[in-house]
């Protein structure tokens, strides 16, 4: 969580002490409704797992200077899982104190960091705009640490979900990686279609694991190049609106890229691709 020079996470002990959370303080910038696209996707993609759980605990990791995103996450999760609980975790104790007036049944705020100080393995960890200013080389260690805290997979469950990504200040453009206990699964691109000139506009919001890999020779660069080409080829559909153009472009992408979702999600200005197709080389 940025702000000053980050600590190196590689080699840190698996458990942090109660007095020294793992990570560094973020700038804390946040806005109401900023994470609506991520929340909407989580509810659709992970709602069934949350409903099946006896105690569906979700963590809003690094919620920032104000608790809006944690409050909104509880509301959105409860539309698909009425018994969901949210724990907002912040490494800055002053922010935790400031959030306490918003605590209520199902919503708690705690001081902590990447050790995720909750008593039971959570079914969801959402970490939005947390790793933005960390070094790229630190991301894998953070992912491993957070995935190890997730509820494990079982015969009837894929386990918990870590959703880590970056968005702009008002949530128009957002890219995130979804990870299970086993590691990364997918990458989702989401946008307000009316604000989009071309799909590669989303490159500036790639998560830390990918943003420095948007260069020739890397898979994510090839994906965005192909997406722009499909977008250009779909220009005749623009007369029916940006949504129809986006849907046509994504449909064309499926010929060469492992898109995992379908028209229901595409209509929302989303597309999800398997992580293996975009993972950095080397």
Automatic annotation (TrEMBL):
Residues 1-31 are annotated as: Disordered. Residues 15-31 have a biased composition (Low complexity). It comes from the Bacteria. This is Methylase.
